[in-house]
Amino acid sequence: MSSNKTINGRSSPGLCIAFFGPDGVGKSAVIEAVKLELGSAFSAVAQFHFRPMFGRQGLDRPAVTDPHAQLPRSRLISCAKLLYWLLDCWFGYLVVVRPARRHSWLVIFDRYYPDVLVDPVRYRLPASTLRFARWLATLAPRLDLCVLLDAPAEVVQRRKHEVSLAESQRQRLAYRAMFQSVPAKLLVNAGAPVDQVAHQVIVATSTLLQRSSSQPLEAPLLARS
Fold first, then answer.
1. CA 131 to CA 138: how far, in whole Å?
2. Domains in the chain, ordered, with CATH?
3. Which pTM value belongs to this model?
4. Are 162 and 66 in contact (CB under 8 A)?
């Protein structure tokens, strides 16, 4: 890994950001805009989907066109999956994310472990495992900033209608409720143009980096809703 770069004349300590929101809210477009704008300020950029996959994140993944197509797994297998995903998050944090931050990397997650609480059907989790999932989510490594891309269900449906309007409305409320307990967070109006949404994330990121010299990144530096 290369040495730290500087932002506004100051050494950049690296940063880890997770983006949340339903399919159709514009996560991929915003992430690409943020990487384009901020990437040069860091030594490198790494991106993961939901979890680090034990270093196999570079493998091709088929696009999800029907996130609710498959039936839930059994309770036992689902609990084992939840534990496996949590272990993967910690492995990735200790082996990849924490060293990358020390060497001025920008690390981005498109979804992260707590996403299982919002849309358990996507992760094939039966209702009987949700209490266990909620507890495990509190044990996942804390990231520097969690960004919720929030838009009315009608806007999401115009972009993608892989789930029903009622499900899009439910997910929006569930994401907002889940974010109440997130310490370092940013809630962005994703109904705005991509460049405006990305600008809000970039401003929040700059705030984190400017404060990091006197305050650990793990602290709840930003809470905006």
1. 11
2. 6-224 (3.40.50.300)
3. 0.86
4. yes
